[in-house]
Amino acid sequence: MTFGIDRLLADAALRKPLEGKRVALLAHPASVTEDLTHSLDALVAAGVNVSAVFGPQHGVRGDLQDNMMESPDFTDPTYGVPVFSLYGEVRRPTEASMATFDVMLVDLQDLGTRIYTFITTLRYVLEAAAEHGKAVWVLDRPNPAGRPIEGLTLRPGWESFVGAGAMPMRHGLTMGELGHWFVHTLGLDVEYRVIAMEGWAPGAAPGFGWPVDRLWINPSPNAPNLNMARAYPGTVMLEGTTLSEGRGTTRPLELFGAPDINAKAVIAEMQRLAPDWLAGCALRDIWFQPTFHKHVGQLCNGVHIHAEGRFYDHAAFKPWRLQALAFKAIRALMPDYPLWRDFPYEYAFGKLAIDVINGGPALREWVDDSAATPGDFDSLTRPDEADWAAESRDFRLYPD
């Protein structure tokens, strides 16, 4: 298959509308061609007049490990063009930065999860482009989580930098498709174009969204592999808890644990409560010691989620429900466990981080309600998932 950047570089006719234009590139470390050339270098070599570069969270260079670590603006040392951070002093493009280009190329590898902030940055870019009369092209890339949809829809009033719009956690769209959805739902008057992929088959084994003959490059420092991308719609919720999500280990956001939990007991309780929510993967109890972040230097007992190899069933795997079930199991085993972490997650003050992550309090309330069952949770969630499946289908550019 062929990614958007590779199609643009290979086809002079696709690039022709860029002639005589000042072109900006929104990129990160995974913005590479099939032969691993960074998109900036490849576009310049192809004769595109790149006048500015923009970087999302974690920076163009992907050098900032943790969340809420801001990147500065700088001048690219090779090409001498300005590099503007969209996760520094500002989250939205400024009037000054918008004046540096005519067309912005967005070449960002996404993870298919609402909370992954690159889609919020896409929304902000589209809104700024509509305001300033600029064009936006998305050079499309695969959604490595594929087409499955899972999660509650973000509720009104819960929009944030990790909540770009009323969609579920696992949204099933590519960046190019999401751009069309933003343009439509926000009513934006903007010149928007997608350089679509060729040959993307999100329902095909073994990658189910990710072409396994294409190398995985971390789009952010703690997104090291396909297993993480598959688990992430669930494990990202750990950022709103006192449990470690594995930052400071070699397998971040594929596992969870703490010094004071019994992983085997948690897995057993999960199996008792809702065995069907554990389908499509394997759970393994482990020990780990984070070198930074939560529980640094402490021996933790935890659970590793393996959504890979012979254990993986794409249609059956439910990462968001699985992680919610883990919280429910811990609450059942230890009713007074201090599970929820209270801090201004992504600068959303006055709200619990777990609620900001989920776009509302419903998941936390279900976990904390000892009488609430997995069936109750499904009854709450399934209508949202069905509604999004119907709505999002209108914006799909690729057959399943």
UniProtKB/TrEMBL annotation:
<dbReference type="InterPro" id="IPR008302">
    <property type="entry name" value="NamZ"/>
</dbReference>
<feature type="domain" description="Peptidoglycan beta-N-acetylmuramidase NamZ C-terminal">
    <location>
        <begin position="231"/>
        <end position="398"/>
    </location>
</feature>
<feature type="domain" description="Peptidoglycan beta-N-acetylmuramidase NamZ N-terminal">
    <location>
        <begin position="23"/>
        <end position="226"/>
    </location>
</feature>
<dbReference type="InterPro" id="IPR048503">
    <property type="entry name" value="NamZ_C"/>
</dbReference>
<dbReference type="Pfam" id="PF20732">
    <property type="entry name" value="NamZ_C"/>
</dbReference>
<protein>
    <submittedName>
        <fullName>DUF1343 domain-containing protein</fullName>
    </submittedName>
</protein>
<dbReference type="Pfam" id="PF07075">
    <property type="entry name" value="NamZ_N"/>
</dbReference>
<dbReference type="GO" id="GO:0033922">
    <property type="term" value="F:peptidoglycan beta-N-acetylmuramidase activity"/>
</dbReference>
<dbReference type="InterPro" id="IPR048502">
    <property type="entry name" value="NamZ_N"/>
</dbReference>
